[in-house]
Write a sequence for this structure.
């Protein structure tokens, strides 16, 4: 393989892996810390992408445009959405069986898809790349690489660094880790565990929506896009270790490289290579790469 082509594929793999991490980090917080199997998490990714598409004209008219203003508004609305959903639905699932969690969250998938169809229809929509990120950088004599893809990777790295800092260095992160280990003890020490879970869930929704919003100019916006990313993100969570943010990052990068280079070298088997990776790692370490957040 030509070195320049190899570099391009590596950049694509890193960008895809980091985007997966952004979605999977929210899923692993909800799944690993709160104990809820949230099949609707992919819908939050879809909601973020559709908000990037639908809010851009509104922001353009209200404040004269601005890519970051659109992202900020999408994140704020997704936090509010997460808070309301946790209050109305997910707060009743913590002590329920996994089957009830699956049924409830699958029902939410159907609701989100129907609401999307009513509001914006079933067409495929494109989201424009901001003009200041629409350029390319030269790689060799013949190839270039989009600046926006590098921007996506940079945003994901910044969010990952902030997430690691919050989990490892702040009082909130300490409380989250303690609540994941022993929620009864944390509650006995005076922590409002319901509010803590509501915050964690809202953050998880915002992370998935942010991933969808920044991915929209690359992948476009289309019905069912959340269901595709959900399956891969569950693979990332299982490989990395349930509840582990570090594991989610490493697993997402592994999946990104396996999927990208599998498509290049083994196109006919590319669809199963990620799952073969998961099977191999679980045979080696059934608990995943890491055990804790």
């Amino acid at each position: 393989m030509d070195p320049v082509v190899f570099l391009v594929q590596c950049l694509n793999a890193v960008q895809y892996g980091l985007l997966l991490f952004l979605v999977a980090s929210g899923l692993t917080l909800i799944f690993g810390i709160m104990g809820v199997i949230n099949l609707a998490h992919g819908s939050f990714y879809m909601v973020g992408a559709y908000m990037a598409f639908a809010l851009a004209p509104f922001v353009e008219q209200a404040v004269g445009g601005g890519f970051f203003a659109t992202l900020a508004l999408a994140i704020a609305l997704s936090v509010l959405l997460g808070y309301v959903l946790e209050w109305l639905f997910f707060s009743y699932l913590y002590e329920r069986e996994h089957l009830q969690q699956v049924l409830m969250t699958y029902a939410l998938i159907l609701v989100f898809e129907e609401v999307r169809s009513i509001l914006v229809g079933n067409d495929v929509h494109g989201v424009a790349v901001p003009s200041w990120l629409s350029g390319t950088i030269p790689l060799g004599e013949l190839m270039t690489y989009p600046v926006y893809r590098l921007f996506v990777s940079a945003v994901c790295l910044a969010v990952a660094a902030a997430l690691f800092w919050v989990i490892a260095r702040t009082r909130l992160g300490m409380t989250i880790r303690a609540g994941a280990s022993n929620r009864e003890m944390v509650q006995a020490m005076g922590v409002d565990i319901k509010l803590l879970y509501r915050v964690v869930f809202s953050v998880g929704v915002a992370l998935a929506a942010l991933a969808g919003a920044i991915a929209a100019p690359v992948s476009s916006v289309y019905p069912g896009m959340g269901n595709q990313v959900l399956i891969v993100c569950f693979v990332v969570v299982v490989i990395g270790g349930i509840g582990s943010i570090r594991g989610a990052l490493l697993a997402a990068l592994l999946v990104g490289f396996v999927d990208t280079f599998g498509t290049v070298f083994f196109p006919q088997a590319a669809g199963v290579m990620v799952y073969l990776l998961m099977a191999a790692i679980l045979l080696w370490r059934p608990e995943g790469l890491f055990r804790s957040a």
